[in-house]
Amino acid sequence: xxxxxxxxxPLGVNCFILGCETTGEGIIIDAGDDASRIIDTAEGLxxxxxxxxxxxxxxxxxxANRAILDHFKAQLLIHEADSPMLARAADVARAYGLxxxxxxxxxxxxxxxxxxxxxxxxxxxxxxxxxxPGGCCLYLxxxxxxxxxxxxxxxxxxxxxxxxxxxxxxxxxxxxxxxTLPDDVTAYPGHGPETTIGHxxxxxxxx
Length: 207
Hints:
With about 210 residues, this protein is of the alpha/beta class. It has helices spanning about 35-45, 60, 65-70, 90-95, 165-180, 195-205; strands at about 1-10, 15-20, 25-30, 50-55, 75-80, 110, 115-120, 120-125, 135-140, 145-150, 150-155, 155, 185-190, 195.
């Protein structure tokens, strides 16, 4: 599988470009900003993007959606609980003194246990509310990889003081959906460096 990460936007969002080496079909996860760089990178990898997936609806993770969807004629996927945030992304960004862009609405909603298929590759959606009501992680079992959005970070967890956040719910999501994965699964968060599930189970200060 092709797996490429880019750090985009002023808040340093990790955007992921995944692709099938056999078919050239790809997906983009958390297209937060820098749309032209994301597009150029995906095309440089020889990928045709069929789906854009948002792990959650915060403005820093969705700002490049429109340009990428228009360029590739791709489908957008996000959990239904976070879809209302897409139309407010620009206003929320301005409240933080930043520029943002509203996103189109999704063609499909992510649901817990749903499989996303691109070429011969597949990943499973894990609904992990707490940072936002519709926050999701994306598990690629064959690759021993999970993309955790802003649910779990290296030695930390996502903020829960924003609208819709819940500290107790976030801890429960991590315990039941992420800490039940094998210890050797690599976790790629929405910001900052990767970690492993085993490391976080043993050393994350919130647990």
